[in-house]
Amino acid sequence: MTTSSFSPRGSKQEIESGTAFQPKFDENGLIPAVVTDAGSGELLMVGYMNEEALRRTVETGEAWYWSRSRGEYWKKGGTSGQVQTVREIRTDCDQDAIWLKVDVAGNGATCHVGYRSCFYRAVRRNDDGGVTLALVEPEKVYDPGEVYGRDQG
Amino acid sequence: MTTSSFSPRGSKQEIESGTAFQPKFDENGLIPAVVTDAGSGELLMVGYMNEEALRRTVETGEAWYWSRSRGEYWKKGGTSGQVQTVREIRTDCDQDAIWLKVDVAGNGATCHVGYRSCFYRAVRRNDDGGVTLALVEPEKVYDPGEVYGRDQG
Fold it and tell me: B-chain residues within 8 Å CB-CB of A136?
């Protein structure tokens, strides 16, 4: 398999309107990846990729990330079975963010806490100006105590 | 108006399962915000907030960001009219990402290049292993030459 190569950053015009993929990695060598369910469109998670993780994702069609907490490559689902098959990859105007549309294998959940999406809580502002979180995705797909592994970012 | 205050970071258990909003800002004081259309669910953009921008967003119900390129607060739509009215705010398991569901005012577009979404291009892998971008949102909502201002991140 030929190694996919990304282009060096060009002019603002090239980045915004061109056809060369010129992803911008931050000072830590990372680019954020927004992950949605290819079928429902639901936001599942936000992960981070370095250049090699992005290359593996493009080449294998399965999502790879860089775990900032563990400092290692992280194939989503490697432990949990919640493998993400990539249906489409997009980038934004500045090419400093990635959007993955995926199908989730295994038990269909994405979050290591047990929910389908990592975004299971909403921010609510109270009358007194305080801010609290409310659970808006009440049902867990699985009990993380049973399959909890190292499959988290 | 009482100033909204966020909670200091607690234990892993508190962060993942609690009701206290304990957003994590990175070493630059920023947290990424994924922005989707409250009606269609379409991914519109990824922006960044510092604590004050997040506070303004929570308190005003309109999206504020921190512009990394300009080093200033950025009320989305302040120049373009593409104001984002926030319908729901969520956070993820680690509380290190924000999800805004918004209604977009003005001409309904989000991207300063003229498209409805900033994610108007898909990453395609060619037979030779090369990677290029393909325009997947062909119609611009407006000509940015006419209203192009400082309303971009």
Answer: 90
Task: Give B113's contacts in chain A (Cβ within 8 Å).
Answer: 16-17, 93
What residue ranges in chain B does DSSP mark as E strands?
Answer: 31-37, 43-49, 64-67, 72-75, 84-91, 98-104, 121-125, 131-135
Q: Which residues contact A99 (CB under 8 A, 6 or more apart)?
A: A33, A34, A35, A36, A88, A89, A90, A91, A92, B43, B119
Please report the ipTM that was assigned to this predicted complex: 0.92
Q: What is the pTM of this model?
A: 0.93
The reply to whether B118 touches chain A by the CB within 8 Å rule is yes
Q: Cα separations (Å) of B53 from A26, B30, B79, B84, B110? A: 21, 9, 17, 14, 18
Q: Which of A6, A92, A100 is the best mutation test for B, with the most CBs of B within 10 A?
A: A92
**Is there a binding annotation on residue A96?**
yes
Single out the residue of B83, B103, B106, B82 nearest to residue B39, CA to CA: B103
**What residues contact B114, with CB distance under 8 A and at least 6 apart?**
B140, B141, B142, B143, B144
- Walk me through the domains of chain A, giving residue ranges and CATH numbers: 12-148 (3.10.20.810)
| pLDDT tens digits along B12-40 | 999 999 999 999 999 999 999 999 999 99
Q: How many CB atoms lie within 10 A of CB B27?
A: 7
pLDDT digits (tens, 9 = 90+) for A95-129: 999 999 999 999 999 999 999 999 999 999 988 88
- Asked whether the beta carbons of B49 and B31 are under 8 A apart, the reply is yes
Q: CA B110 to CA B92: how far, in whole Å?
A: 23
